[in-house]
Amino acid sequence: MQPIGPLMIEHRLIERLLLLVQREFQRIRDNVAVDPEFAFVDPEFIDTAMDFIRTYADRCHHGKEEDILFKALAEKNLSPEHRRTMEDLIKEHAWARETTAGLVKAKDGYLMEKPGALDDLMDHLEKLVEFYPRHIDKEDKHFFIPCLTYFSEAEQADLLARMHEFDRLLIHEKYRGLVEGMEQRRGCQSC
Ligand SMILES: [Fe+2]
Ligand SMILES: [Fe+2]
After folding, report:
1. What's the average model confidence in pLDDT over 86-93?
2. What's the confidence (pLDDT) of residue 37?
């Protein structure tokens, strides 16, 4: 498999999640159109979707793009166009990270019945639904394949192996972080 293989496979799962988010967005919007007082936001859906975006789309997927593929590309003599696209993609990752954090904050505000929180939540949902397909399309159709030409077969094999290792370590990082967060919140001194 080429090193862009795992990234493209991950794109397909991200698209499926975003389709669910889009449907949820439309469902809430339809509810609000009938009666603005009853949006029926499902906080569990938002939490699950945001965990997917933070852990899978950002840490796992953008992590492999930025820490492995883009880092290796940065050492190559990239064409100005490819370098610009790569810089744009990195900026877009940062934007998605901020927007996801904004969505989580808006959801918390909504649960506390803060004024304007529903509009804020819907605004962030819509932005993410619009963003990901564009970002994925740019990578799949205009960046990943030409990128391969900068690497020898041995270099591609090395990138792929490093991506597998990145994934292998991720589950441990995720749940170590979870336990450490719980320890901190409960003031656990002995850990
Ligand atoms: Fe990306
Ligand atoms: Fe991607």
Report:
1. 98
2. 77
Q: What is the DSSP letter of 40?
A: -
Enumerate residues 6+ apart whose C-beta is below 8 A from 167. Answer: 6, 60, 64
pLDDT band at 66 (very low <50, low <70, confident <90, very high): very high
Question: What letters, b where the CB count within 10 A reaches 16 and e where it falls short, cover 24-61?
Answer: bbeebeeebeeeeeebebeeeebeebbebbbbbbbbbb
How far is the centre of ligand 2, averaged over its atoms, from the C-alpha of 175 (Å)?
A: 23
**Amino acid at the residue 17:** L
Do residues 95 and 131 lie in contact, with contact meaning Cβ atoms separated by under 8 Å? Answer: yes
Q: What is the pLDDT of residues 157-185, one digit of tens each?
A: 999 999 999 999 999 999 999 999 999 99
**Which pLDDT score is estimated for 190?**
56
End-to-end CA distance of the chain: 41
Ligand 2 center from residue 41 Cα (angstroms) = 28
Neighbours of ion ligand 2 (CB under 5 A): 139
Closest-approaching ligand to the CA atom of 93: 1
Rounded to 10 degrees, the C-alpha dihedral 113/116/118/124 comes to: -130
CA 44 – CA 41 distance, rounded (Å) = 9
**Rounded distance, CA 61 to CA 65, Å?**
6
